[in-house]
Write a structure and sequence with these properties.
The chain is of the alpha/beta class. It is 35% helix and 26% strand.
């Protein structure tokens, strides 16, 4: 079994010293895996990514309990540039790009100062996202939603990350574009050996490529398991995949009074 690259242990995040957003979240991401964080709006998915990437402070939030370790070293409450320097790069929701810069300028802006092989990185990015090469002189503000998402991922790849964090890949995108992006991510993982932690509301899409997944509900981990195990789980099929009468009930009702379960495979 591959080594644990990232581990969260009983993580708690509090906003403005009063609002607890996530409580006791524990998860692990092994090197080379694609791991999905699933859940509805407000479940704590984005907060978890921001806690890992160091961006909580911008929202007046802080990790108040628990640990986040990367390669065995604690990184909770580090500044974003410190986390990025370790090879952990966040791809936020798709509109977080420099709209007044061209595609090429967006890519160049994300290369660390110490990086000398900018051309080599660009070649890799354009290989995986050919539309960006054709559009490299276009201002990013004129890109479509799918092209913006490509640019967001490509900009992160220019930092040569060890661990890629992606927030809501499918948000607002057409189904065919989502499938295309998922295929590209799988190819990037397979060829470059990159590890990916993916936040996604669309469970059906995420479970197509994830090796392992966690389901968050009200700031806690409610379920976890491999792609196969969660895809076959009755509650996941009924609520998240819309297969059955329970899909019209709240997931909280389904999980009420039931302990968290874990499968090992």
């Amino acid at each position: 079994m591959s080594e644990i690259l990232l581990q969260l242990e009983r993580l708690e995040v509090v906003y403005h010293r009063v609002v607890t957003a996530i409580q006791g979240v524990s998860l692990e991401v092994r090197r080379g895996q694609i791991v999905a964080l699933l859940g509805t709006n407000g479940a704590g998915k984005t907060t978890t990514l921001r806690a890992i990437s160091g961006f909580l402070g911008l929202d007046g939030a802080r990790v108040t309990d628990g640990r986040i370790t990367h390669c065995g070293e604690a990184i909770e409450n580090r500044l974003p540039y410190e986390v990025t320097a370790r090879g952990i790069v966040l791809v936020p929701e798709r509109d977080k790009i420099f709209e007044n810069l061209t595609v090429a300028e967006n890519l160049e802006a994300n290369v660390p100062r110490s990086r000398v092989d900018r051309e080599g990185l660009e070649a890799v990015v354009y290989e995986y996202f050919p539309p960006l090469q054709r559009l490299k002189d276009r201002e990013a503000g004129y890109l479509s939603g799918g092209e913006r998402q490509m640019l967001g991922i490509a900009s992160a790849l220019m930092c040569s990350p060890d661990l890629l964090l992606i927030d809501e890949l499918s948000l607002g995108l057409a189904p065919l574009m989502v499938l295309d992006l998922m295929d590209r991510l799988r190819g990037i993982r397979d060829r470059l050996g990159m590890t990916i932690l993916l936040v996604e509301q669309n469970a059906q899409v995420a479970l197509e490529i994830a090796d392992y997944a966690y389901v968050l509900e009200n700031g806690r981990v409610a379920l976890e398991g491999s792609r196969e195990q969660l895809s076959q789980n009755r509650e996941i099929r009924e609520f998240y995949l819309g297969q059955g009468q329970a899909g019209r009930r709240s997931y909280r009702d389904l999980k009420q009074y039931r302990p968290r379960r874990r499968w090992f495979g």
